[in-house]
Request: fold
Amino acid sequence: METKIWRLSQASEGTRLEELTEAAAVLRAGGIVAFPTETVYGLGAHAADTAAVERVFAAKGRPLDNPLIVHVASIEAAGRVAETISETERALMEAFWPGPLSLVLRGKVGAVSGRVTCGLPTVAVRMPDHPAALSLLEAAGCPVAAPSANRSGRPSPTSAAHVLEDLDGRIDGIVDDGATGVGLESTVAEVLEGGAVRILRPGGVTREQLEEAGFRVEEAKVSESVEAAETPRSPGMKYAHYAPKGELTLVAGDRERAAAYIHRQLAAHGGGVLTYEERAGLFPEADVVVSLGSLDRLETAAQGLYAALRRFDELGVERIYAEACSEEGIGEAVMNRLRKASGGRSVHV
Ligand code: TXA
Ligand code: MG
Reply:
C-alpha cells in the first residue's frame, strides 16, 4: 500500500483545509490515517468501524487486549460515546480539554466498536489540543480511535518522519504538521466513586496541575503501584513499551555515585549515555551522549525523549545508560517512560 502524505506545515490556509478534508474522507471511508496531536502522532480509524480498527491493530502489531483512546472534537462529542458523564468528569473536561488528559468513562453500548474497548465496559476519551487534529476530527464527523502511531513496543512518534520509519506502506496516509509539543502521551485517568481522580498513566497533564485545579488525586504514584500490580488497571501499562533496540539501564540515586557507576560500565562494555545539559560533559569516553536539556526544565526532556531513544537506535548503540530525573511535575511521566524503556533494568546507587 502506498502511504499518502498530506503536508500542512508550509501550506496556505486554503490548502491546509483541502488536505485535511481529503484525509478526513479517507478516515470516514474506513482508511487508517496518522495525524499529529499535542502529545505524539496518533494512528486514527473510524471508532465505530470494526474493520478499520482491526487494521490499526494489524499495522502496529498491537496486542489485541490493549484498548484504544477515542479522540473527539468537543465535550458534546464525548457525550455520544459515554453512557454518562459525572459532575467531576465534566469539570475535568472543562478544566483540561482540549488537552493531554484521557478520561476513562462508562461506555455507551454500540457507540464504538468492541475492538476499540477490547470488550471493557469503559471507554477512554480525549480532546486533543492541536489545530490540525481538531480540524480533522471535525471534518471526519465521527469519533476517531487512535493509539500512538508507532510499531508496538517502539518509542512513540513525535514527528511524521518517525511515523514513516515505523509504518510506511502499512497505513493509508499521514497528516504531517511538524513536531508535536508535549512529546509524551496524555495522562490517562478515571474518576472514582467518591470523586477522587486516579491516574492510570502519567502524562501531559501532571498530578500537580490536577491538584492546583482543585481535584483530589489518589495518592499512590503510578510507577510504584499500578505498574507493579498483577492486573494493571490500564491494560497498556503491562506491555514492554517505549523501548529502544539497545539495552537501556536506568541509573538513579546519588549523582556522583551515578556518574562513577556509568564510568565503570562504559569502561567495561562501552555504550551511550542519556543525560541532561548539566551533566552532558561528564562522559567523554561514551560512544554517544544525548542530552535531554536542563534538569530544571523537564518539559524539554519530555519533548525530546522519544527522538533521543530513536537516535540511539539509528546509531546502533547496544547499551544505553539513562540518568534518572526528579519525579515532580512532568518528571513523573518522563521517569515512567524511562522505566518502561529499561524493561526493569534499573540500578539505584
Ligand atoms: O497522547 C495520547 O494519549 C496518544 C495520542 C495519539 O492521543 N495516544 C496514546 O494511545 O498514547 P496508546 O494506545 O498508545 O495508549 C492508550 C492507553 C493504553 O495504556 C491503554 O491501555 C489505555 O490508554 N486505555 C485505553 N482504553 C482504556 C480503558 N477503557 N480503560 C483503561 N485504560 C485504557
Ligand atoms: Mg502507545
Observations:
- The CA atoms of residues 60 and 151 lie 4 Å apart.
